[in-house]
Amino acid sequence: MRIARELLERSPRAKKGVSRLNWCRNIIVAGSRELEESRCSVTLRKAMEVSLQEREERRPSTVQELRWIFRRFMKRASGFAGMKLRNIRASHCKEALDKLFDTPQQFRKGRIVLHSVFACGIRHGWCSSNPVDGVLKPRVQEAEITALTLEQIGKLLRAAQEPEHRECAAVLGLMLWAGVRPTEAQRLSWEDINWEEGAILLPARHSKTGGARCITLQPVLREWLLGCGGAEQTGAIRPQDWHARWRRLRREADIGEWQQDVLRHTFASYHLKHFRNLSQLQLEMGHSTLALLRTRYLNMRGISQDQARLFWSPEFAQKTTSTTK
Question: Looking at the predicted structure, is the pLDDT value of residue 282 above 80?
Fold first, then answer.
């Protein structure tokens, strides 16, 4: 009786034919539905486990990163991880992300992963909406990445011609003159190069974004790869113990502080300066839109037309590597 009296006291005055009794009845029905839905939900911890199981076929590095992020949620935000999925609101997500991730880049990564967990929950009927949609993405100020100079490129190429680094030369060429991402270059095999059609075929399974693409095998890259024995090679292009070997090569080249993805940025800048074809560059880079190219990748400051022409000339690598250090 007390509950019924409190419900009636909270009910609004009747209007437009809706009686206080009907209003109370609707509240009871809605509450019963919410309670039943809550019982059918699972904890965020359980949803994370299922989400990970559904993505076990992804690349090992991707799965490893997901496991690290999920463990972070479970250890450092155990209360949040123990909540029912249907009861979690945007404010809960924001509080957990702020607690677990210190930088805007980490926050964005954590937000993406958490969003995918709720998407999994929606598919399984454990929740009806994604509260992460209500969490604003932090603005990330990308550091400017300057394309390598011809002098720096020459140092890399000469270092790659040393006997102890020659097995890294082909991968270096793919990153420099084809704009292939480091992780993509490590997955390529010699069979992915079509010498007759002059193209590098990057299968979807090797691409970071999951989409296949065809990259022009420029004459300078063709000559460089042939110099690495490419026409007669089979199997993986990447040598064993690649990461350690690549670090040693960069250290010997001594070109200064190494910026991540600098070779891909170098490719994009010299490509546009010389070929002046933004749409073609977008296709070869594997971007769905031009926005990323325009805002982050293109930095042609200090690159002249003559320098860009020389970069794409087969004679550039030949002259550079034949020059003594």
Answer: yes
